[in-house]
Amino acid sequence: MENFKIDVDADGIALVTFDVPGRSMNTLTSSVMDELPELVERIKTDDAIKGAVITSGKASGFCAGADLGDMAGGSLTGGGDLQTAFDAGWKLNGALRALETCGKPVAAAINGLALGGGLELTLACHYRVVGDDSKTQLGLPEIKVGLFPGGGGTQRLPRMIGVQAAMTAMSAGSSWRPNDARGAGVVHEVVAKGSEVEAAKAWIKGGGKAVQPWDDTSFKQPGGGPYHPAGIQNFLVGNAMIRKQSYGNYPAVINLMKAVYEGIQVPMDAALRIETRYFIKTLMTPQAQGMIRSLFLSKQELDKGAVRPAGIPASDAKKVTVIGAGMMGAGIAYVQALAGIQTILIDRTQEDADKGKAHVEELLKKRLSRGQLTQDKYDALLGSVIATTDYEQIKGSDLVIEAVFENREIKADVTKRAEAQLEAGAVFGSNTSTLPITGLAEASVRPEDFIGIHFFSPVDKMMLVEIILGEKTGQAAIARTLDYVMKIKKTPIIVNDGRGFYTSRCFGTYVAEGLAMLEEGYAPALIDNIGRMTGMPRGPLEMHDDVALDLSMKVSKQTALDLGDKYVPLAGAEIIRTMVEDLGRYGRKNGKGFYDYDVKPKKLWSGLAELAPVRINDSTPELVEDQKQRLLYRQAVEVARCWEEGVIDDPREADVGAILAWGFAPWTGGPITYIDQIGLKAFVAQADDYAARYGDRFKVPQLLRDMAAKDETFYGRFTGARAAA
Amino acid sequence: MTEAYIYDAVRTPRGKGKKDGSLHEITGLSLATQVLEALRDRNGLDTSKVDDVILGCVTPVGELGADIARTAVLSAGWAQSVAGVQVNRFCASGLEAVNMAAAKVKSGEADFAVGGGVEAMSRVPMGSDGGAWPVDPSSAFPTYFVPQGVSADMIASKYGFSRDDVDAYSVESHKRAAAAWADGRFSKSVVPVRNQLGLVQLDRDETIRPNTDMQSLGGLNPSFAMMGEMAFDAVISQRYPEVERVNHVHTPGNSSGIVDGSAGVLIGTLEAGKAMGLKPRARIVGAASIGSEPSIMLTGPEFVTKKLLGKLGMTVADIDVWELNEAFAAVVLRYMQALDIPHDKMNVNGGGISMGHPLGATGAMITGIALDELERSDKSTALITLCIGGGMGTATVIERV
C-alpha cells in the first residue's frame, strides 16, 4: 500500500498513517479507494492486530475528502452504465462498512481538518479523537459543489446526532470546530494537539467496543425516524425548508433528503446501498457536473493564477494605496490589510478618510469578536491602515487603486496626482464598474501600467475581482495585478474593455428583462418570484431597487448619448422615468421604488399597476418555466455576445465570473456551461423563439450558429484557448 | 342499470374533539355501532339483506384501525353475513362510502349497502396514521406540499378574500346552525349518543356558538402564520408565484372544528326496499371524483362539480340545495365565486365551521342534511361535495323521489 503505513505497537495496536504520496493534502484518490479494502482486510485478519488507530501523516490535516478532479473526470459515472457506476461508487461505502464491522476497535486520531469523505472515513471508525486547534474544520461540504456525502455520511451522521442536526449540517455544507464537533456529538473527545494518537490508543486499551451504535440491537434513532411522532417534523418541515432554499434547482439537496429518509428506515447495509444509488444519480446530473467544474475546479485554477501571463516574475504587493474611502474603498482597504498589505487610505478630507478607516475597524472588530483574530494581530492590522488626505503618502506603493465617484474628470484628476508619486513599475488601477478603461487611461502618462480593477460590494464578502484591460495595458501590469488579487485571496478574471465590461453589462440584462416583463403586463410579484426561482439571488425588480432607479436612468441616458443612432431604448424605460422624475421613487435608497420599504417585509408599491397595467396575473408551471428560461437566456445571450466581441475568451472565467459577480444561477455552473449543457443547437433554436417573441436582444451572435452547425461546445472548442494563444 | 335509492340517513351529534368533549369518553367503535343500530332499529331492517357496510375513516389506526366497518357490523349485532370495508378519501371518505354503496347497488353487486363514516378525533388524533405524501421527499417536493391551512390561506390570498370576508362567513355559519337546531331541522336524523349505561351522552352538535360575532372572531390569531413563515409560504409561493405574500386569514374561528361523530346512509334498490317495506326518499343521480393541483389542494370541489354536472347534463341552476363541507371559509367563498352560487342556497343550515368536521363521517352527514333540507323546503335536487387532501374533489347529486 502506498497510501497507508501500518505500525503495530507492543499492545497490538496498529497505527495506520494515511499519507498520499506526492500530495500536500490527503484526498480520497482512486489509488486510496483501491487500497482501502486491503487495509481493512489486514486489520481484520492479522491476528497480531488487536485494534487500529487511523491518523494522517500530513501536517496539512487529516483528509480533505474526495478527489473532485477524479470525479469530474468520470471516475464514478461508469461511462453512463449505471451498474458500473454503482459498483464504483460502492467501493468506498463497502470498504468503510467492512471497517466498522471488522470486529476490532478502530479509532480515528484526527490531526487537522477532515472534510467530506475525510470526515466520513472517521465516522466509520468506532471512536473519534480530534486535536484541539481552532483552524481544524470537520464537516461535510459536498452540497456546495452540487453533491452530497456519498461515503456513508448521510446514514451515519443522522444516526449519531439526529436527522435535524445532520440535515442542517449536510444541506448547508457547514463545518464544526473541534469543540463544537464534540458538543454536537460528531466526535467523542478533544485532546491537546499532538496527542490524538495517544488518546485514541488509550481508548482501545481501555476496552473500546468494536460495535457501532447502529449495529447494536438496542439502537434507537435519535430524535425518531420519519414516522415517529417527533421525527416526522424533521421531514415535513425539512422538505419545505429545502424547497424554500433551493427552489427545486439543486437535485443534490433533494436527493440528500431522499437518501436520509429512505436510508434511516432500514439497516445500515441497505442504507448505504440507498445512499450510493442517490449519490451516483446526483453525480450524473448536469448541475453536479457544472458546479464541480466551475465552483471547484475552475475557481481553484483561477485562484492559483491560471490566467496570469507567463514569463513575468512573481511580484508581492507590500504597500497599496486606496483613493476614495467610501464603502468600496474602505472595503478594499480591509481585505488588503487582512492580507498583510500596508494600506494608505486617501480621501479629500481627513474626516472622510477617517470614516473609511472606521469601517475597516468595524470589520476587523467582527473578526476579533469571533475569535478569528488575536488582539495583537488586530492591533497590527488596524495599525497598518493609514487614513490621510496626503498624496505624498502614496510614495513607495506597489499599486494604487482609485475608488472615487464614477466621473471621468474626478478620476482623471486623481490619476494625475497619484501617478506623480508613483515609481516605475507601480500599477494604477481604477475600480470602475462602468467607465471604459481605455478612455480613463487617457489621463495617464503611463497607460501600460493603467488597468481596471473592479471589486464588488460588499468587498469583504464578494469573492470576485474583474480585471479590465485597456488598449495599452501591458503584460507586466496584468501580472502584478493578478499577483495582488491572489494575495488578497480573491478570484481574478481578466476581461477586455467595453461598455460595462463583462459583469455589469451582463447583469444589467437581467434587471432590464424584468422591466420588459413589467411592461408586457406580468404581475410584479410574478416577475420577482420567477426571478428568484431561476436561482438568481433576487428578483429583477427588487434588484433594480437595490441598484437605484435614478442611477439606472442616468446610465441609460449616458448610453443613449454615447451610442447615438445605435442606441436601442430599453423596454420599460418610460416607467422608470415616471417613477424617478415625476414620483421621486429612486429605489431602496429613499425607501420608495418598485417596493415600499417603510413596512417590513417590504411590499410591492400599490401604484405600480397604474404605470404598468397587469395583464398576466395567473401562472402555470409551463409559463413559469418559459419565463425562468427567458431570464437566464437573456443573460446567456449577452455573455455569448461578450465572447464574440472578445470581452471574454475563457469559459472558466465567464462561468466563475458570472456566478461570483452577479450571482448567475449557480446550479447551472455558469452561463457558458448552461449553453453547453442545453446544447448549442437547442439553445440557438430557443433563443430564436424568444427573439421572435420579445425582440432582437435575444438574437444570438453568429459564433453560436456556427458552433451549433458543427455541434460544438464552448468547453470543447475553447478550453485552453488562452494557454494555446 | 339499476337505480340506487336512499332509504334513510342518520348521524350522531358532533362532540367537541378534545379531552373535554362530550364524546371523548365514548369509543369510536361505539359511535359507529350506534349509527348501525339506529339504521337497523328505525327501519326494522333485516340486516341479513344488507350486503356491505362501507365506512369512511381518515385516521384508521388504533381503535379505528383494522377495518372498523367490519368490527362495527359485528359490534352492532348485525347479521354476520354483512361484509364491512373501511375507505379513505380523506375528508370526502364519508361521501365516497355513500358513492361506493350506491355503485354496488347500481351494478347489481348489492341489494342493500350502507355508506357512512366514523371519526373519533379526540381519541385518534388527526395525522397519527403517518403517510408518505408530506414526509417522503419523493412526493413532497414535486407536489409543493403544504399543510391544508396554508393552502386555504393561499386560496384567500389568490382569490381576494380578506380576514373580514372569512370571519363574516363564519358568523353566518354559526347563525344558520343555531337557527336550524332551534327550528328542529336536524331532529329527523340526529341519533343521540348513549353512554356505557345507555343514558344520553350527547344529543346536540356541541360546537355551535350562536353569539359568534366579528369582534370575537377578529381577536383570534391566524392558525397557520407561524408554519407558513417557517417555510410553507415559500413552498406554495413557488407554485403560485403571482401571489406576493400569503395572507394568513384562517383561524380556529373560521375553519372547521375538530369533532367526534359518525353517520350512515342506507342505500338500496327499489325492489329490495319494497320487499323490506321501506319507502325511498331520494335517488342517487350521479357521483364523481377528481384530482386537481395538490398544493392549493382545496379547490377541487369546483372542478368535480363541473365534471359531474357536465356528465349529468345539468347546470348550476338545476341545483336547489348546495352542501360544500366548510373545511375553511375561503374554500366555500371561492367555490361560490367560481360557480356563481348564491349564499342563500349554500350550506343553509350551517356546516363544518359551526358544527365541526369529523373527517371520515362528514360526507355521509351532509348527505343526510341535504336530504332533510330538500324535504323540509320541498325542493328537488341537491349537490353534496367536499374539498379533499391531495387536491381531490368528490361530489354527489341526489334527487327526491
From TrEMBL, chain A:
It catalyses: a (3S)-3-hydroxyacyl-CoA + NAD(+) = a 3-oxoacyl-CoA + NADH + H(+). It holds the Pfam family 3HCDH_N. Residues 500-597 form the 3-hydroxyacyl-CoA dehydrogenase C-terminal domain. Gene3D superfamilies: 1.10.1040.50, 2-enoyl-CoA Hydratase, Chain A, domain 1, NAD(P)-binding Rossmann-like Domain. The keyword Lyase applies. GO terms for molecular function: enoyl-CoA hydratase activity; long-chain (3S)-3-hydroxyacyl-CoA dehydrogenase (NAD+) activity; NAD+ binding. Pathway: Lipid metabolism; fatty acid beta-oxidation. Keywords: Fatty acid metabolism, Lipid degradation, Lipid metabolism, Lyase, Multifunctional enzyme, NAD, Oxidoreductase. Residues 319-497 form the 3-hydroxyacyl-CoA dehydrogenase NAD binding domain. SUPFAM superfamilies: 6-phosphogluconate dehydrogenase C-terminal domain-like (SSF48179), ClpP/crotonase (SSF52096), NAD(P)-binding Rossmann-fold domains (SSF51735). This is 3-hydroxyacyl-CoA dehydrogenase. It comes from Brevundimonas subvibrioides. The lineage of its organism: Bacteria, Pseudomonadati, Pseudomonadota, Alphaproteobacteria, Caulobacterales.
UniProtKB/TrEMBL annotation, chain B:
Residues 278-400 form the Thiolase C-terminal domain. It comes from the Bacteria. Pfam families: Thiolase_C (PF02803), Thiolase_N (PF00108). Transmembrane segments: none annotated. Gene3D superfamilies: 3.40.47.10. The keyword Transferase applies. CDD domains: thiolase. GO terms for molecular function: acetyl-CoA C-acyltransferase activity. SUPFAM superfamilies: Thiolase-like. Residues 5-228 form the Thiolase N-terminal domain. Keywords: Acyltransferase, Transferase. The active site is at residues 91, 357, 387. Belongs to the thiolase-like superfamily. Thiolase family. This is Acetyl-CoA acetyltransferase. The lineage of its organism: Bacteria, Pseudomonadati, Pseudomonadota, Alphaproteobacteria, Caulobacterales.
